[in-house]
Design brief:
The protein has 4 helices and no strands. By secondary structure, the chain is an all-alpha fold. The model has no long low-confidence stretch (mean pLDDT about 80).
Length: about 100
């Protein structure tokens, strides 16, 4: 998780005890857990709302699919209408840029 090893977790725990204090640490940890839980609920609701607003055909949409390169590749593969070879699609998507004037 987050590419943090056991040593880093131990260091974070020691820093937590020093900065917050051992008597308030359980309350701060519980508040942090609630915050993470609420953030997770918020993101799952946002993803669900996005699926509903996009309509049919996007029921299996994942958040990682919102990357334009992955979205285009997945859409072309699902449609089965890939007129270009996948290597050419990757080359085109690698060079694709968003025009700032359109934003």
């Amino acid at each position: 998780m987050f590419n943090i090893g056991a040593g880093e977790w131990l260091l974070l725990a020691v820093l937590g005890v020093i900065l917050v204090g051992p008597d308030r640490l359980p309350h701060v940890a519980a508040d942090a857990a609630r915050l993470v839980r609420r953030f997770k609920e918020l993101t799952s609701k946002a993803t669900e709302e996005l699926r509903e607003n996009l309509g049919p055909g996007f029921e299996n949409l994942e958040v990682s699919d919102l990357n334009p390169k992955k979205f285009i590749t997945k859409t072309l593969n699902e449609a089965g209408e890939s007129a270009l070879p996948i290597a050419e699609i990757r080359e085109i998507s690698k060079n694709a840029r968003i025009d700032p004037d359109l934003l």
